[in-house]
Amino acid sequence: MSEGTALVETREMRPAAESRPFIEHSLVQLTLVRFREFWREPEAVFWVFVFPILLTTGLGIAFRNRPADVVRVGAVGPQLAGALRGNKSLAVETLDRAAGEQALRAGRIVLLAVTGADGAVTYRYDDTNPEGRNAKLLVDRTVQHAAGAHDPVAASDDFVREPGSRYIDFLVPGLLGMNLMGSGIWGLGFAIVDARRKKLLKRLIASPMPRSQYLLSFLLARLVMLYIEVAALIGFGAWVFGVPVRGNLFELALLCLLSSLSFSALGLLIASRVQTIEGASGLMNFVMLPMWIFSGVFFSADRFPNALQPFVRALPLTAVIDALRAHILRGVSLSQLGPQLAIISGWLVVCFFTALKLFRWR
Amino acid sequence: MPASPSRPPVCVHGLRKAYSDVVAVDGLDLDVRAGECFGLLGPNGAGKTTTIEICEGLTAQDAGTVELLGLRWETDASELRQRLGVQLQETQLSEKLTVDETLRLFRSFYRQGPSVSEVIAMVQLEEKRNSRVGGLSGGQKQRLAMACALVGDPDLLFLDEPTTGLDPQARRQVWDLIERFKGEGRNVILTTHYMDEAERLCDRVAVMDHGKIIALGTPRELIASIGAEHMVEFSVAEGSSLVDLAALERLDGVRVARCENGGYAMQVSELHRAVAALFDELAGRRIPLTELRTHSATLEDVFVSLTGRHLRDE
């Protein structure tokens, strides 16, 4: 028997590591490092926790549902103005022609009504702007009624103003999806590329660190932070704006977990070879930009033309936001969200295994 | 724990590694004896780091075998990682962690070794224990990197340029640390391009150039191998006639003479006779001497006599 083998045997008679306390296990230590590095980076804490709440607040205020949402219009001539003032949904300014044009261009009014020499009324407005078209309908109706028109069919209003159908309700699941994407991709991608750049990854693999635990520590840390993020945003939306959560909370937790894992896998894939922070942030923006635009964070993804829909639907963030909206706002259960879950899982599996194949420690 | 003399803790044979544009290591053989501090000395680009990284299991060789502590990377990688201590040239440890947290992390990878407090005491960072790594000086960072290498109680310690970029005081602290580790009879392999470091710390030195070992021995043997114990360097007034190198080499006690940096350098066996002869020679030719320096021969002079270049020429 060689001396080398003898050395190994002597070694193994030394005290075993199995009796070490929980806190001294490498996976626990690696995961603690993830938390320490995150909490000691004030910018990261801001973007993950504070920014989404600020954004929700800002947009919530800007797009709040005003009980009597008035449409600002201008009228040339006191007679026309008088007729329009009969409608409480209109805020009417009496202007001369030039001042009216000016106000229209500045966006202070959305429509300018002008009476011609023959008594006919002309409406000047931007027909591609929904508010302009709305103003035209309101103003025209008011003008016709003032001139004695009657509705042939009797009609009355029944308003829907319950939580769950307002813009803020639409927005919160969108922002939640965007946040899951951001923290998954940045959180994993940046930390790994930074460690590679500093040759820390190289140093770690020269030690007996179990390599899978390095990755696992990111996922465990995400798991904890994920629920803080989700609870902060959903809790804030519910508390301040009364955004409802109609789905089952356990299913919501599962959905967020799957989404976050999927984005983390994408982050891992992005970080698998990049050597510099600049390279990483360029690549991350390249990957995230289409999703910020197309995935329906701020407005419905259905608005994009049909030709684009297959692409829009295939994006992981579209699937995540669709599923979150259906679940949170309409209480749709996960079992009915098969297509979205399939897309999210597909991205998870493909990105994760590609990343493992491409990954370089140095 | 010293290995038996029959089986050196490090046996490297026929090691070769080529990158796309350059052969970094070109057929290298190396045996490190038990309990030895072994130095790889050479200029930048000589292949020192590639050699040490192959030994550390970070780079795969193109050809050749590496056997460490009787184990091989191909079959015993995880056992080897437990028993090697590694300090890399450019690692930046996470700046947001404290000294204590960094060592706790590294300690958790090893099945046995000293406690975190013991390692901190070993590298004399007790006062910095709860400081962030980002706030440490260069020397303190380097000692922390050494602590990370020592935390698994290694049988074999690899140090890649352990004092590059440190001020003299910090260098001496790192040297003390290496000497203490050496004093415990363990094996150290270090790379350096400082000849004073190699002379002070290493039991044996391999001088590397262009991926090959061009000289091997104790620092004393290597210096003796150039056959001269002293170096004499001098300059003459500008505009004076050139000094004939052949004439210099004929002087009493002078072995070799050459032009260097606008002056002259001679390897000399008997200093007092050579200097007297030099004065006579220059006086006889009416050449005014402007500068004269003598020093004992060093590993630097060994490198120069072998390659005609200085270690830090690049």
Question: What global shape of chain B is seen?
Answer: elongated
Oligomer: heterodimer
The tally of strands of chain B reads 13
Helix and strand content put the structural class of chain A at: alpha/beta
Low-confidence stretches of chain A: 1-17
Indicate the proportion of strand residues of chain B: 25-35%
Strand order in the largest sheet of chain A: 2-1-3-4
Span from first to last CA of chain A?
37 Å
Number of helices of chain B: 11
Uncertain segments of chain B are: 1-5
**SSE sequence of chain B, one letter per element:** EEEHEHEHHHEHEHEEHEHEEHEH
Radius of gyration of chain B: 23 Å
Mean pLDDT of chain A: 85
The domain count of chain A comes to 2
**Helix percentage range of chain A:** 55-70%
Question: What percentage of residues of chain B falls in helices of 4 or more residues?
Answer: 25-40%
Give a short overview.
Chain A is α/β, with parallel strands linked by helices. Chain A has helices at residues 3-12, 26-39, 42-62, 78-85, 97-106, 130-146, 167-197, 200-206, 211-241, 249-270, 277-294, 309-314, 316-330, 338-358; strands at residues 71-76, 90-95, 111-115, 121-125. Chain A has 14 helices and four strands.
Topology:
The complex is a heterodimer of chains A (362) and B (314).
Chain A: H1 3-12, H2 26-39, H3 42-62, E1 71-76, H4 78-85, E2 90-95, H5 97-106, E3 111-115, E4 121-125, H6 130-146, H7 167-197, H8 200-206, H9 211-241, H10 249-270, H11 277-294, H12 309-314, H13 316-330, H14 338-358
Parallel strand pairs in A: 1-2, 1-3
Antiparallel strand pairs in A: 3-4
Helix pairs in contact in A: 2-9, 3-7, 3-9, 7-9, 7-10, 7-11, 7-13, 9-10, 10-13, 10-14, 13-14
Chain B: E1 10-18, E2 23-32, E3 37-41, H1 48-55, E4 63-68, H2 73-83, E5 84-87, H3 99-109, H4 116-122, H5 138-150, E6 156-160, H6 168-183, E7 187-192, H7 195-201, E8 204-209, E9 212-217, H8 219-225, E10 230-236, H9 245-249, E11 254-260, E12 263-268, H10 271-284, E13 289-296, H11 299-307
Parallel strand pairs in B: 3-7, 3-8, 5-6, 6-7
Antiparallel strand pairs in B: 1-2, 1-4, 8-9, 10-12, 10-13, 11-12
